[in-house]
Specification:
The structure is a homotetramer. By secondary structure, chain A is an alpha/beta fold. Helix content of chain A is about 35%, strand content about 30%. Chain A contains ten helices and 15 strands. In chain A, strands 14-13-12-11-7-10-9-8-15 form a nine-stranded mixed β-sheet. A six-stranded parallel β-sheet of chain A has the order 3-2-1-4-5-6, with helices on both faces. In chain A, a hairpin with a 5-residue loop joins strand 9 and strand 10. In chain A, helix 5 runs antiparallel to helix 10. The longest helix of chain A is centred in the C-terminal third of the chain and has 19 residues. Chain A is globular. About 5% of the residues of chain A have low confidence. Chains A and B meet through strand 7, strand 8, strand 9, strand 10 and strand 11 of A and strand 7, strand 8, strand 9, strand 10 and strand 11 of B.
Chain lengths: ~325, ~325, ~325, ~325
């Protein structure tokens, strides 16, 4: 039975507590939060759980094998380092760190210590994203042409990071997962339409291997919530719409023969193939956070490296930093 | 009764012939096309119409007051010049020209000759775009935050222009119409996913006055046809979806009080206002091409300048040229 | 070259004129209408066409092989009889007659005369309905459980027939076509919500062979236009939505194994199987009226009986009459 | 602090436990279930709660003011009687009883005892249904023309009741709530398409005052889940779609002037008015079960009668019984 300590019982932490206390093979042993009220709530909900106010007290306890960190973004880096140095496995909410070098140091630290370091990119454990990747199997999908994603809503506005660091990590992680690689460069334009101190909307284009583009539109200012990822390939278009409960994933097929795929001077006046069937494959429901926690436990138990390990997380941070630099230079391409 | 000559009876020209022959106040007097078969078809459909093979023959005829040009894009510039020099009013399909300087010359020529020069941006006469602009009235809409547009489909691929020159003129014209001005700069990334000789997908960001952004996604490679324009402002989001017959225009309102619009350090953690009602205003059906032709006739009759005159068209061409240059420099901002 | 006379150039007739004048293998020879203005319009659009004011004048002409009748419903029966007695093939708009016995007489007359009698159930030539039937192939569909259809809108209100005779013929014809048979009984409730002199909404249930039900909801009073036909079977649900241009036909599959199809006392507490994939098969566009006219010409040329012959039409009329009687007896089942 | 005993901790009971244990003003004091395992689960989740195996033990306890019953339908009647006879307030899941007379006796018993008897028609506390009723305010809605509802899915099939008793109570309760009255008659056709021992699909028409019809389509055999209620009136159509999270309620307005509402012999050929705007009003999220439980507590505290009291529930049972009789006589109208 793996004993887990949870650091942070604010907005997101209680979800981890609920999931961890339901899992066979793990036990929520300690909850750590600076607020006495939050700790009182935790004890009320989980009568047997121990509580403490800071991570040092938590790490001094015997028998805590792993730590889950669900605190504000700016605290992640220090907390992860403390936990790894104390020999604990770590699952930390994204982003792992706010800058590239410290992020790289954490990844190295985990490797050197032989500990699991996993970052909470829950979308990688979302059944819709998994089905999307399934729909991109080369035989059915052909070559990847490009990806694009939209993530808009009315806030919630963050004060410690801009809209790119808040929302785009999800999309970059999904893109990297789907393509099996990281972008090489970024070109982005942002704006502060809400007159806050950070960019609150942005249009981002990322360049991947084989000249595949990935475009991301993020916004805190749009009164229409959208959560959509799209991949376009030779034979089909695959969409994941996280707000469409009934049909979260859809395949739009190209119909007809493939000989129009590479249009030549003779044929390219004409329609490039034809539209074909549209299919909404059945996606099994399931809570991504639970799947993610199960994977964390599995990785510890079997000495496996999780999909979203320190290196993966570092790739996302590196991309976010490049996007920031491109926004500062008004769209000019910046290497990741 | 205004007598009109139609140059070009290929793919698009017959639509003009049908509309012009139904309008009170105008008469389709001559059809001009190099193909004898096309002229035969024109005579069959419009028994009284005269036909000729080139614009010179057309312009030699008495009593042709105005010329409508619906030929391939690369021929527009020369044909417009000929018609204006011969003292005729001109309605030409977009784009008016493929380069900035010749386009500017045409605009000047029309002004000097006192002739109407109108460019066929039919979307400006689309009831949905009109309703969209109505929905952006300052009282109801507030400040403009940004615009974005998507125009994707499987081809049809052009051999004389790239996807930006083929599809984006519609979106640029709509943006310029909605904002009442032209962009100041462009940042764009394109790609040749179909391995043709020109960019077949592109992600474009335009910078307008007051730091308003306009983003455009165009693609010839997507097996899902989308025709959508979106404007986001302080109080609502307005959408025009040309493929949604039942509800082509939708307003997504921000609910609640406005004091969250400019989030301060205290409140910006929280949701920026709330989502409100969604309204699909009734849009009266009507054929945009007919409305456009009526406007052309009206402008001639009353000596009025059309919305999409030479200057307007020149603004679009200038923007397209800037997008091309930005794509060549991989996203770096280029002044329009 | 088959010479065709068109009787009726009012609301619907011009569509026949347009389609017939475009078909290879047929010639629109005469147009017949009591209104001089309508005849003038016909001559203007089709310079070579002859015109006359009544069907007698039309039938006196040599060389008219077939007659298309597009006049008000109450005139159909007499016009069809005249044309058949004069030895002409007939294509008449639905309904062929307003009562059962005269309808039966027409069907017999056509058979005795060896002439094609076709009734204009255009939905049978609609690519969406055809694809729907394709989707009901026994292997893929299983047994038919039941059908239902909705046909609602704001009017247009008719003064000569009630809403059932106006709208339900489409649905009955589609049901009979999909099931390959006619209903045995009808149970229906109607109402006059608009305070007109005839029922303007109705809920109808029809009983087909093998205890298959067909339910129809028709309304002139609903400000939401719906045109939808649904078939539910063992393995899938098939929908035809005539207002969904992009995805007019959809298949909703049952997932999992079939052993839950006939739930027994042990298993029937549980979910009856699982929901499966949803597929929108590509439906080739095409104008149903054109396909229908081509079929009429083919039937004449090859001596074939059309799908919607007199007998088929009689089945629909018999059903409409039974629905009327059931509405009068407030829902009690009436044999067809 | 009101002390509440919960009878039944099987499928639905735990939801009551969760909601009741979160409410200020009430305390979940006892959980009663025949299964030791379920009681163990209850104690684990709610450490302070008492447990017992049958209602007698529960009613013997002091200080239990009210009882919530969430057991199988066939047990409701006896349990409600026991609780009322013991002087407790009762909230029971629908249906209150399976036959009319015993149901009437329960309503009388509650009245005589001066106790609150509430039946769990949660949809009456659903924010979408509330908004629907709001949208039917006479000024905005005009006269009610008719209602219709669809409630379909793949099972879950019940073995103790048919599909009408399983699903239609929701729709009848919603209709009665919206119209402020009960139906006078019913006409219904059912079928056993799954070859089970009870009707598994049914088409029902109910007759309310002022000749208003209410139509209900219920099915256990449809692989497309639908939960929709529609009201059509003079000025608008109001829809509640429980599966549309983003826009659960929509108003479809009739446009133009109202003088076409009662079409006369002159105008009724024409379109009855025009389609107008479509509005999706913001619906505040909230858990209906919680609102319902709050209402139960309020009614007890203030001596108020709940919306869904014994009389209301009896009206639904009476209607269900009439539907059964009409199905047996194949659609003939049966008085409620």
């Amino acid at each position: 039975m793996l004993k887990i300590g949870l650091v942070g019982f604010g907005y997101w932490g209680p979800n981890y507590a609920r999931v961890l206390s339901d899992l066979a093979g793990a036990e929520l042993a300690v909850v750590c939060d600076p607020s006495p009220e939050r700790l009182e709530l935790a004890r009320q909900r989980y009568p047997g759980v121990a509580t403490c106010e800071d991570i040092d007290a938590l790490l001094e306890r015997d028998g805590v094998d792993a730590v889950v960190i669900a605190t504000p973004a700016s605290t992640h880096e220090a907390l992860v380092r403390r936990a790894l140095e104390a020999g604990r496995h770590v699952l930390v909410e994204k982003p792992m760190a706010l800058r590239v070098e410290p992020g790289a140091a954490l990844a190295e630290l985990a490797a050197a210590a032989g500990r699991v370091l996993m970052v909470g990119y829950t979308f990688l454990y979302n059944a819709g994203v998994r089905k999307m990747k399934e729909g991109m199997a080369p035989d059915a999908f052909g070559d990847v042409y490009y990806l694009h994603a939209t993530r808009t809503n009315l806030g919630p506005i963050r004060t410690d990071v801009n809209v790119v660091w808040d929302l785009a990590p999800h999309d970059i992680a999904i893109f990297n997962y789907l393509l099996g690689g990281e972008p090489r460069w970024a070109s982005a334009i942002g704006a502060r339409v809400l007159h806050t101190s950070r960019d609150d909307i942005a249009f981002v284009t990322l360049g991947y291997a084989n000249e595949v583009l990935g475009n991301i539109h993020v916004s805190w200012a749009d009164p229409n919530k959208v959560r959509e990822s799209v991949a376009v390939g030779t034979r089909r278009r695959v969409v994941f719409n996280d707000l469409n409960d009934g049909e979260p994933v859809r395949y739009f097929h190209r119909g007809g023969s493939d000989n129009g795929a590479t249009a030549d001077s003779f044929g390219e006046f004409k329609l490039l193939g034809r539209h074909g069937d549209i299919v909404s494959p059945k996606v099994e429901p399931g809570e991504p956070l639970k799947t993610q926690c199960l994977e964390f436990i599995e990785c510890i138990a079997r000495g496996r490296t999780p999909l979203a390990d320190g290196r993966f997380a570092l790739g996302v941070i590196r991309t976010l930093a490049a996007i920031d630099r491109s926004m500062q230079s008004k769209g000019a391409t910046v290497e990741v």
